[in-house]
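[Discussion] Sanity-checking designs against the backbone

I'm trying to build intuition for which residues belong where. Below is a structure token string of 270 positions. I'd appreciate it if someone posts a full sequence so I can compare it with mine line by line.
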């Protein structure tokens, strides 16, 4: 599933965008006041202190298309913190596509950890150093071709590996402490004297099928909608190849110690 996972980790730089309204599009789900919607719905912040983190979830579920969010990650000494931004359905057989941004000591790069779950099964981790400072400006993080039957899907299915395609998913994000593993395998702990830690969100935009709770599927005329054809162009594909070549630090598809009997079937896909 190399190509499919890479579709979910394409990054953009600061860009002007017509953003949604967080009051209309999202619910704060936990944090006891640590998550805030500001500037008439144009900005959302999550904060973390020693007592609790915080999180939010979209009001709608989505299939097919492209979802953008501009995020500014926790600045300074963010060791032990995790900012998670992901799509997920619910239940033990859920589908999920993850970004997890692992904090680090000041001056050290963030690590972006990705994973994909299909029918409750994950284990498709990849990790990348970020090649820019994600704390000084907002950067756009995009999910492309969500749940879409891409040009790779039939090949993936022939290899015996499912793809997230049947379940509509919510957008989630949370800021929390994981200093038992997040930074250098847990060797570097969170410095709580730096709290509260804050991540910021703006310019949410979804060109995607919005799925109602009643139907659980896209309309019958979906194939004629603009969001159905959203996918990476050639320059986007080349950019992903560049990121993989220069900044990937872990790929489950090359971890022979983890898979001594052979790699998962999707790893054979080009």
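Best answer:
Here's mine. Compare freely.
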């Amino acid at each position: 599933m190399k190509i499919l996972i890479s579709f979910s980790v394409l990054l953009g730089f600061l860009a002007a965008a017509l953003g949604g309204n967080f009051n209309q599009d999202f619910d704060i789900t936990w944090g006891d006041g640590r998550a805030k919607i500001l500037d008439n719905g144009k900005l959302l912040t999550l904060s973390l202190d020693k007592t609790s983190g915080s999180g939010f979830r979209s009001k709608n579920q989505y299939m097919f298309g492209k979802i953008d969010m501009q995020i500014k990650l926790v600045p300074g000494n963010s060791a032990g913190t995790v900012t998670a931004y992901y799509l997920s359905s619910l239940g033990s057989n859920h589908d999920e596509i993850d970004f997890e941004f692992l904090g680090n000591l000041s001056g050290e790069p963030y690590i972006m950890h990705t994973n994909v779950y299909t029918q409750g099964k994950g284990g498709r981790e990849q990790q990348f150093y970020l090649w820019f400072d994600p704390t000084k400006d907002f950067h756009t993080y995009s999910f492309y071709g969500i749940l879409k039957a891409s040009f790779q899907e039939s090949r993936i299915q022939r290899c015996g590996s499912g793809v997230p395609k049947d379940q509509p998913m919510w957008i989630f994000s949370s800021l929390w402490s994981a200093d038992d593993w997040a930074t250098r395998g847990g060797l570097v702990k969170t410095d709580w004297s730096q709290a509260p830690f804050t991540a910021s969100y703006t310019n949410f935009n979804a060109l995607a099928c919005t799925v109602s709770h009643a139907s659980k599927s896209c309309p019958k005329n979906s194939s004629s909608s603009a969001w159905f054809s959203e996918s990476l162009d050639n320059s986007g594909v080349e950019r992903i190849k560049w990121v993989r070549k220069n900044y990937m630090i872990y790929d489950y598809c090359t971890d022979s110690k983890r898979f001594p009997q052979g790699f998962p079937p999707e790893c054979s896909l080009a």
